[in-house]
């Protein structure tokens, strides 16, 4: 395994930690700044919105630049944002720090996915992307609980000091371990990056990302209420159950990347179908503690097993200039998060109970599966129509984008 992938994973760990650890520290942060829960909640919502903006605008702005220096620059931005959070004397500067850190999130993962895939052989690209996203899964499994504990014991600012230090380590790792990207790659300007969106398959892949991943996140957003009010678990057991969910994320990400290297579309079809079935089964058996434990592990596993394949699929069909499309798909994950959480809130407000977000998530995932079936069928049809017997073998080596 190239050591540069480890550096990317460390960066992913830090970014994942700064995104999610705030959830466990909101009471302390709100009390320090003397604001209410709703105002403090914008530290989460504002971050998520800034991720989408950064995934598109920041990635577009740096599309002509060599990727290694760009990744380093993004981590400098990340370090600055978290340093501002650690030092912020008031709510406004804390929000500014969150936004600055978030702007690098989508661009880092989008560009990092392209860099990771360039470090390995063609048949290991999805696995390389999975290694980078391992940092995000480890942040959920270990980083968030430990970061929350540190913040509760030593003050919430200490957690952001620790994240700043992780950012510095990742920056050094990328500067030393990530190989320089060939200068030829920097010739892809914004126009070339935008032309990649003429591919119908790129848009279909982004739609699958929003629906399938958003369905899982919609079910997960209200999981604490589902576990305590629906499943009868004590509130003190919820963190341990969430760690189990995080273990599922780690396993699913690793195995999903390996499977996608063999066949992206087949892997996504199987995994998304399994995720939909898992969510439906979870909704039906949420009052059973043993079944809930199994469902949490499977939901995390199948949910994150989609990530390497979805990212790889977008890059595959935007192969001539994949950077902006890769960043856009990172933004799509966050759009799916917001859509799933909103839909879950709608059904809860309608009085349908705390298992209703799981049903809503299952419905979103089924829609994502339907889009994926159409995308895979359309891709095979397009491949048959564009390959002639004379040049089929040569052209099959490169993915053929379909025109919208």
TrEMBL record:
<keyword id="KW-0472">Membrane</keyword>
<dbReference type="Pfam" id="PF07690">
    <property type="entry name" value="MFS_1"/>
</dbReference>
<dbReference type="InterPro" id="IPR036259">
    <property type="entry name" value="MFS_trans_sf"/>
</dbReference>
<keyword id="KW-1003">Cell membrane</keyword>
<feature type="transmembrane region" description="Helical">
    <location>
        <begin position="202"/>
        <end position="225"/>
    </location>
</feature>
<feature type="domain" description="Major facilitator superfamily (MFS) profile">
    <location>
        <begin position="4"/>
        <end position="380"/>
    </location>
</feature>
<feature type="transmembrane region" description="Helical">
    <location>
        <begin position="128"/>
        <end position="148"/>
    </location>
</feature>
<feature type="transmembrane region" description="Helical">
    <location>
        <begin position="160"/>
        <end position="182"/>
    </location>
</feature>
<feature type="transmembrane region" description="Helical">
    <location>
        <begin position="70"/>
        <end position="89"/>
    </location>
</feature>
<dbReference type="GO" id="GO:0005886">
    <property type="term" value="C:plasma membrane"/>
</dbReference>
<feature type="transmembrane region" description="Helical">
    <location>
        <begin position="95"/>
        <end position="116"/>
    </location>
</feature>
<feature type="region of interest" description="Disordered">
    <location>
        <begin position="384"/>
        <end position="404"/>
    </location>
</feature>
<dbReference type="GO" id="GO:0022857">
    <property type="term" value="F:transmembrane transporter activity"/>
</dbReference>
<feature type="transmembrane region" description="Helical">
    <location>
        <begin position="292"/>
        <end position="310"/>
    </location>
</feature>
<keyword id="KW-1133">Transmembrane helix</keyword>
<feature type="transmembrane region" description="Helical">
    <location>
        <begin position="358"/>
        <end position="377"/>
    </location>
</feature>
<feature type="transmembrane region" description="Helical">
    <location>
        <begin position="331"/>
        <end position="352"/>
    </location>
</feature>
<dbReference type="InterPro" id="IPR020846">
    <property type="entry name" value="MFS_dom"/>
</dbReference>
<feature type="transmembrane region" description="Helical">
    <location>
        <begin position="268"/>
        <end position="286"/>
    </location>
</feature>
<feature type="transmembrane region" description="Helical">
    <location>
        <begin position="237"/>
        <end position="256"/>
    </location>
</feature>
<keyword id="KW-0812">Transmembrane</keyword>
<feature type="transmembrane region" description="Helical">
    <location>
        <begin position="42"/>
        <end position="63"/>
    </location>
</feature>
<dbReference type="InterPro" id="IPR050189">
    <property type="entry name" value="MFS_Efflux_Transporters"/>
</dbReference>
<protein>
    <submittedName>
        <fullName>MFS transporter</fullName>
    </submittedName>
</protein>
<dbReference type="InterPro" id="IPR011701">
    <property type="entry name" value="MFS"/>
</dbReference>
């Amino acid at each position: 395994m190239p050591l540069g992938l480890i550096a990317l994973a460390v960066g992913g760990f830090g970014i994942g930690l700064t995104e999610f650890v705030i959830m466990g520290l909101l009471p302390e942060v709100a009390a320090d700044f003397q604001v209410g829960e709703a105002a403090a909640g914008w530290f989460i919502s504002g971050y998520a919105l800034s991720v989408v903006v950064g995934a598109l605008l920041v990635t577009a702005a740096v599309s002509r630049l060599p990727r290694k220096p760009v990744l380093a620059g993004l981590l400098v931005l990340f370090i600055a944002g978290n340093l501002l959070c650690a030092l912020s004397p008031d709510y406004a500067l804390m929000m500014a720090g969150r936004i600055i850190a978030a702007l690098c999130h989508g661009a880092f993962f989008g560009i990092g996915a392209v860099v990771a895939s360039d470090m390995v052989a063609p048949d290991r690209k999805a696995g390389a992307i999975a290694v980078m996203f391992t940092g995000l899964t480890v942040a959920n499994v270990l980083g968030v609980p430990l970061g929350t504990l540190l913040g509760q014991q030593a003050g919430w600012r200490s957690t952001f000091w620790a994240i700043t230090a992780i950012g510095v380590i990742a920056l050094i790792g990328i500067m030393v371990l990530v190989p320089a990207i060939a200068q030829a790659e920097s010739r892809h300007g914004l126009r070339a990056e935008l032309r990649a969106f003429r591919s119908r398959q790129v848009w279909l892949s982004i739609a699958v990302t929003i629906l399938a991943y958003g369905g899982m996140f919609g079910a997960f957003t209200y999981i604490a209420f589902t576990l305590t009010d629906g499943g009868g678990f004590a509130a003190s057991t919820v963190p341990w159950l969430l760690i189990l969910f995080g273990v599922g994320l780690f396993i699913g990400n690793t195995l999903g990347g390996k499977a996608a290297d063999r066949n992206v579309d087949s892997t996504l079809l199987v995994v998304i179908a399994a995720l939909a079935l898992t969510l439906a089964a979870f909704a039906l058996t949420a009052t059973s503690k043993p079944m809930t434990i199994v469902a949490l592990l499977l939901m995390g596993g199948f949910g994150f097993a989609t990530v390497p394949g979805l990212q790889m699929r977008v890059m595959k069909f935007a192969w001539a200039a994949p950077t902006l499309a890769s960043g856009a798909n990172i933004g799509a994950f966050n759009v799916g998060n917001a859509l799933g959480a909103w839909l879950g809130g709608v059904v809860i407000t309608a009085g349908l109970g705390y298992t209703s977000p799981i049903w809503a998530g299952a419905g979103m995932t089924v829609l994502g599966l339907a889009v994926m079936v159409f995308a895979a069928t359309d891709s095979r049809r397009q491949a048959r129509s564009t390959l002639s017997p004379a040049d089929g073998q040569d052209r099959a080596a490169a993915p053929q984008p379909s025109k919208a």
